[in-house]
Amino acid sequence: MSHFRTTKWYRIPCPQRAIPRISGSRLLEFSAFILKFAQQTQFMKPKRRTLYFSFLFLLALTSASAQSYTSPLNVTPALSANFGELRSNHFHSGIDFKTEQAVNKPVLAIDDGYISRISVSPGGYGLALYIEHPTGHTSVYAHLNSFSPQIADYVKEKQYEQESYRVELYPEPGLLEIKKGQQIGLSGNTGSSGGPHLHFEIRDTPSQDPLDPLLFYSPIIPDTQNPDIRGIAFYPVTGKGAVNGSNTPLRLGISKSKSGQPMALSRPIDAWGRIGIGVRAYDRMNGQSNIYGVKHVRLYVDEKLVFSSTIDRFPFSKSRMLNSFIDYETWRKEGSFFMRSFVEPGNTLGFYNSTGNGYIDIDEERDYRMRYELEDHHGNILVYPFLVRGKQQSISPPPMCETFMPWTLHNRIMNVDFMLDIPPGNLYNNVCFSYRKSASTAYYSDIHQVNSSPVPLHHRATLWIKLTADTLDNRRQYGIVEVSESGRSSWIGGVYKGGGMETSIYELGRRYAVDRDTVPPMISPVNPEKWVNGRRIEIRLTDDKSGVSSFRGTINGKFILFSHDMKSSLYTYIFDDSRLEKGKSQEFHFVATDGAGNIAEYGYSFEY
After folding, report:
1. Among 373, 349, 299, which residue's Cα sits nearest to residue 86?
2. CDD domains attached here (predicted)?
3. Could you give the CA distance from residue 376 to residue 385 in angstroms, rounded to a whole number?
């Protein structure tokens, strides 16, 4: 191992085989390290130091580009969703490959590795595989229709061992080794999928943080389309700002010209004091009708960058902080996603860069020239300039607060018939909390309005409601329900405690009461006379209130494996001759329990 030479070229002071690969997601971190380290190497001449670290950075780029993964599908690559898209309570953690609107397309491993996790669930990812690679990444393939035979046999064995369709399996390293390009399953539409596609992720293995797969796949997915802006919102800070004479948010849509270009704001914006700004925008891709999430958002004021966000990585533990990234109230009420260009104090997402947390102080009577720059992964940029006029106006004082909840503290509200407990780490900002209740004869409690407006919680709060009529012998049949403004109720459940019901909630702003569920699930056999010839048993299982909690099927007292998917009420068992004793009468028994503990049973005898 040699020292630096004084000639024009320099030898790296370590063997090349010891230099690790650096993924695309690490390049910026690596370059920052280089610059920081260079500042500390004062003994080097500037030119020599520059050459040395430039070479290191070039080496990192070369190593990253050499880390190539194959496509997980053999169809023309096209996306129905990209990384970081805004979803209900979470960021989209991967990309969704289209499968030509069909299921059963071969799914291929993108590189050598071994299967480190297998998930089977009626919801969520449905049938999913996780492959750990020597590159330091884990690839994820979700909503599969089936696994390849070797994997399917392993999964089935474990399902029978656990006597459960739903399983989470973690095979030992080396048990299920996979080669690059090997078929691992068939694409599908299982779990919470809304149509046939392959949900695909690349994760950093040590942290399991999802990374943007386009860091590795952008060359095979052409995109020359700019993002699309749909609206801008202005948020005066309570007690510190005003917009157009009001302290309430102002949200404006943006119209398009005949040529499709975004037009100017529909009205002048006068502001004073401290305000925040948000944008509603989407991305587009070549030849696709879908809309996608915007990767980079930048807000400038008088040519100064005051806020930027780049969604290329996040920990799952912070994915729910999307609810602080967006205008949560507007999403809850209208289904629109406005992305805030300011950061609430309880929001610790790591992909922001801002001055003053993105808030803007309008303290001069002049024009503030602002612009949004929206950029996608391929570098296509939409620039939207707009004007905010600084104009002195009255700023309303903060409203009288019934109950002030600091975001940093443990907050608890309690009276004789209601309790709300919000542990610290749940609120993203201070909350002016309000509470109301109204008597009801339709429920077993009063109806409790838990805050007047929607407020997201990062984890969960505990809600307790006292029963006004405790008349059921089986108290498992009580459950807390959410009551909509139209009077419709949806079951949440809970446990009986101290003359009331206790459950967890994940947002404020809803109405709750205690109801009952005394009706068991309904078991409906589908054409039992055809089961033997069709070599399958089909059961339709439904529950109109608390939902199916568990089920179990047996033949002659032995567990049999029923598969099912959340999008259907159909439960299916495929005859398995290796586990059935043929040539005798078969006694089939099926039992189902709902969320309130009500039990339904069905039996049928047949010859096989």
Report:
1. 349
2. M23_peptidase (cd12797)
3. 18
HSE-CB of 571 using CA atoms within 13 angstroms: 21
| pLDDT band with cut points at 50, 70 and 90 for residue 114 | very high
Q: Where are the domains of the chain?
A: 16-66, 79-220, 228-390, 403-516, 522-607
Name the phi and psi angles at 159, rounded to 5.
-65, -40
pLDDT for 283-325, tens place per residue? 999 999 999 999 999 999 999 999 999 999 999 999 999 999 9
CATH number of 522-607: 2.60.40.10
**Nearest partner of 265 among 158, 187, 372, judged by Cα:** 372
Q: Could you tell me the end-to-end alpha-carbon distance of the chain, in angstroms, rounded to an integer? A: 75
What are the CA-CA distances from residue 446 to residues 242, 418, 454, 477, 517 (Å)?
Answer: 39, 10, 20, 18, 17
Token readout for 274 is 């401290």
User: Class assignment of domain 79-220?
Assistant: mainly beta
Please give the single-letter amino acid code of residue 215.
L
Q: Calculate what percentage of the chain has a pLDDT beyond 70.
A: 89
456 compared with 37, residue with greater pLDDT: 456
The length of the chain, given as a count of residues = 608
CA-CA-CA-CA dihedral for 107, 110, 113, 117, to nearest 10: -50
As given in the structure block, the two tokens for residue 577 are 């001759």
Comparing 35-39, 228-232, 392-396, 496-500, the range with the smallest average pLDDT is 35-39
Residues in CB range of 149: below 8 A, 6 or more apart: none
C-alpha span between 70 and 147 (Å, rounded): 19
How many other C-beta atoms lie within 10 A of the C-beta of residue 481?
Answer: 26
Q: What is the mean pLDDT of residues 345-374?
A: 98
Contact, 93 vs 139, CB < 8 A? Answer: no
DSSP code string of 82-124: -TT-EETTEE--SEEEE-TT-S--EEE-SSSEEEEEEEE-SST
CATH of domain 403-516: 2.60.220.30
Q: In angstroms, rounded to a whole number, what is the distance separating the alpha carbons of residues 376 and 434?
A: 41
107, 146 Cβ separation under 8 angstroms: no
Q: Is 171 left (phi over 0), alpha (psi -120 to 50) or beta?
A: beta
Contact 430, 407 (CB under 8 A): yes
Q: Are 362 and 241 in contact (CB under 8 A)?
A: yes
Separation CA 169–CA 160 (nearest Å) = 13
CA distance to 155, 560, 572, per residue, from 577 (Å):
17, 11, 16
Q: What is the CA radius of gyration of the chain?
A: 29
> What local confidence, expressed as pLDDT, does residue 67 receive?
61
